[in-house]
Structures are given as C-alpha cells and as structure tokens.
Amino acid sequence: PESNRELRPVVSLAFHPRDGNVIYAGTTHLPWRTRDGGKTWQSIHSGMLDDSDVFSIAVEAASPTNVYSSACSGAYRSVDGGSTWKRMPTPRGAFRTYLVSPDPTRSGVVFAATSAGLLRSANRGATWQRVSQHAVHSIAYDPVNPDKIYFASVTGGLLVSRDGGNTLLESNIGFSNRNFAGITGSGDVLYASSVYEPGSGGIFRTDDGGGTWRRMASPAGENILVLAAAPDDPDCVWVAGYRSLFQSTDGAKTWVKQTLPAGIQAITALAALSRKSLLIGTAGGLFSRTGSSWKAVELPGGRGAVELLQTSGNGALAAVTAGGVFRSENGGTSWTACGQPPAKVAWYGLALDSGSKGALAATSQGMLRSTDRCASWSPARGGLNVATISAVVSHPKRAGEALAAQFGTIFYTTDGGLSWRALGNRGRNGAYPSALFVLPGAPQRLFALFPRRGILSISIEPQNSITTGEH
Question: How high does pLDDT run on average in the chain?
C-alpha cells in the first residue's frame, strides 16, 4: 500500500533459479525478499550497513543459497539465501560497488564493479584481483564461449575478455566518437579509417607524418574495418568491410570493388605483399590473390578463422588463427606452425624480426620472446609487467628493435626484447592501443591507434617526445 512508509523505488531484481516463488529486490533502502511470488515482502538487511542503496542482486546459479549484492557501502555475500549478509573485503578505495555478478559457468568466480575498478575473485569474494581500472556498470556472458565476457564501462566503452575475465581489452569499433578501426601505410604515406560516423567518418590520409590529414573518398555505404597498403606503391591500398573488398590505385581517390572467392565469410584481416599480391584473413580461413586469381591457403593443421595478419618486412608474415599461430618468411608461400604458449593465452600481436630468428608475441599474459623462429617461447620481462600487451611491432629498418604497448604506455627494445624502456612519461587515460605502425619511409616515428581517441605519434629517436592528433 502507498501508506507503507518503508516503500522504496526498486532498482534491481534477482530470481531464484529453482524456486519461482522466491524473488529478491534491491531498493534505495536495503534489500527485500518474497517467498510467495510477490504477495508479501520482508526486509533482509541483517549484517548490511543501514541505509544502503542496493544497486544489484545476483543469485549463484549452481548454489542458490549464495546470494550477492552491491551497494553504496560495498559488496556483500549471503550464504543463507539473503537472511544474513557479510561485507566482502574489497580493496581500499572500492567504497562503492555498482554491480556484483557471479560467473554462471565458473564455480566461485565473482566480479565486482567498484569505484576503484573491476575486481575478480576466484573464491567467492574472499580475495580479489583488480583486472581493469574502468568503472564497469554492466556484464554479459557469452552463452556459447564461456571464456568470452563483455563489460560495459563509463570510461573505457565496451571491454571484452577472451580468457574468463582475467584480462580485458577495449572493443569500441562502431560507437559514436569511439570509432577508429584501422591503420596502414607505405613509404611515407599513412592511412586510417573511422567507422559508423555518418558525414564525418571514412578514410583519411596523411603525407606529412600525421601533421595534417585529408579525408579521402570512401566506398559508398561501407564501414571500413581493415586496411592494407602495398609496400611497393603507397598509392595502392586495399580496404575491406565485413564482406566486401575494394582497391584504390590512386591514393584513395577512387575505389573499385573486387571479386571475392565463392562462399567467403567475414573478412577479418588484410596483408598487402605488393601492388599485385594480397592475403586476406576470413572467418573461413586464409586466402591469397595474385593478379585476379584467388586460392585458399592451407596452414599446418588445417584451416581456421583468421584473427590477425601482421607483416614485419622482407616478406616476414605472422598469422594468428583459432587453431594456432604461424610464421612465413617468403611472403606467405609456405608457413610454419609456431610453438604454443600456456593454455588460455589470448594473442594480440606477433612481430617477427626479419633480420634474425627472433619473434615477439603480445599476449594476455605479457610479452613472450622466441629466439628459434617462434618454435618455443619464454616470458620477456626486462621492464614490462606480467600483464596484457595489447600490440607489438618490429622496426622495419633496424634488426632487434621493436615497440610494444602496455597499459597505454609505449615501450621500446633494441636488443630483441631482452630489455624495454618506456617512451614518454604517461599512458592514454587507461586506453590501450589496438595497433602500432612504423612507416618505412618515416622510420623515426611510431604511430599508435587508440580506437576511441585517435592516433598518437611518438618519436623513436634518442630524444623522443609525444604529440597527438585526433580526427
């Protein structure tokens, strides 16, 4: 009844997975529970700080007596179906918890989205690890792939984890003002694309190292997700949307749609080998084109969805697929399977040193280093943290030199990955670059693409400085 002075706005609900009569409600004044399908309600706040706003309530699917709640006073757990609560020991500074969510497929794994970032616990909240500094307000679990979890945040946009929430990366292609999708270049010309921006997005070109950019023609009605410029002709560039491929031979002034192999699935990656030779990665495997002829490329162990193609100069190529990681030193004519790191590692980049047997891998468990043409891997610390490396690229001119991104900071090595030093003195507000690029015609600068913010350029000469340019 409206005369009930305890009536409060309900801001969250949770349902018992086995008893349809039990419902939990979080309100602006503590949690409530019904055992009779909503006919009567009881306040269930024993152990909870009085006057707490309860933002979320969640019931553990496999063990419904375990109930979690998040409130302005912290994160709470009940082991008796909400009758009594105990505040979980979240780290200092996590004074407000926006959301608490038990993983539906991993027993004991719980996420708490707090004012101090996203926390993950593997023991029902007894101890916590911070896995992101971003303020997360919503979590969605992939019902097909339990390792894939999506996190919506205020400061980082959409974040995705491919390893059960241990590491997260931004995934913001397609959002307004968060839409830088790809970067490529040849000689001293650099191209970038921005997607889902009616009237202002498209393909951009710079001929002066990022000092000025020109908006070029774009294929009509297409959002360009990946680009590749021919190493022997800066005016020859290929671009692709989800299922369409286009080529320009006049520096992105005009475009011609290209015929694709029959039954092609989503285009995920491009690698230009010359103005007449191209590799495309798709959800159905790897394909090569010479002239106008296409053929499927068989990788060791069979085909798999291609997640990444990365060129490293002198014909060195790396491919990351759903089935493994592969290396080619002859422009994709033949491929060798690389050794596999520990299980549950997500790959974000593979840089091959064309002047040696060396390779560096950007992964969710930090930088990995190989000295035997990627047959085996070992951790590469030397100034880097044991945390996600979001991108890595080898220098196109100088053997043994490479650059990597971790927590938005760029690191540089001149000894094949044994030791690393930070370039500049700050990251980019917690954002991770999705790609790094060094122009062969301008090897003194590195370009880093931040999907939601723009393109950062940094000197990789002894006296380095940072400048940024955003469309």
Answer: 86
In one letter, which amino acid is 254? T
CA nearest 173: which of 449, 366, 357? 449
Which has the closest alpha carbon to 404: 210, 387, 336?
387
Answer whether 454's CB lies under 8 Å from 180's CB.
yes
Distance CA 150, CA 236 (A): 37
Measured between alpha carbons, how far is 305 from 323 in angstroms, rounded to an integer?
A: 8
DSSP secondary structure letter of residue 266:
-
**Rg (alpha carbons) of the chain, rounded to whole number:** 25
Pairing of strands 256-258, 267-274: unpaired
Pairing of strands 74-78, 67-71: antiparallel
> How is residue 188 written in tokens?
């001293």
| 8 A C-beta contact, residue 228 and residue 270 | yes
Close Cβ partners of 450 (under 8 Å, ≥ 6 residues apart): 180, 408, 428, 431, 432, 433, 434, 456
Q: Edge to edge, what strands does the sheet with 267-274 contain? A: 267-274, 277-282, 285-290, 293-297
CA dihedral over 191, 411, 470, 461, signed as positive or negative:
negative
Q: Name the burial class of residue 430, with classes exposed (0-12), middle (13-18) and buried (19+) by CB atoms within 10 angstroms of its CB.
A: middle
**pLDDT per residue over 276-322, tens digit each?**
999 999 988 899 999 889 999 989 877 778 889 999 877 789 999 87
Contact 412, 453 (CB under 8 A): no
In the predicted structure, residue 268 carries a pLDDT above the cut 60: yes
Tokens read off for 367: 């930088």
Only one residue has tokens 């008796």, namely: 80
Which CA distances in Å does 419 have to 26, 338, 382, 445, 463?
A: 51, 23, 4, 20, 18
Alpha-carbon distance of 145 to 163, in angstroms, equals: 10
Within 8 A by CB and 6+ apart from 276, the residues are: 290, 291
439 forms beta bridges with: 442
Q: What is the pTM of this model?
A: 0.64
Token look-up 């007596």 returns: 65
Name the nearest CA neighbour of 449 among 462, 465, 438, 464. 438
Give φ, ψ of 16 to 5 degrees: -65, 130
SS3 content of the chain, % helix, strand, coil (to 5): 0, 45, 55
How far is it, in rounded angstroms, from Cα 360 to Cα 415? Answer: 12
Tell me the CA distances in angstroms from 199 to 203, 252, 343, one per residue in order: 12, 17, 44
Q: Is the CB of residue 125 less than 8 Å from the CB of residue 93?
A: no
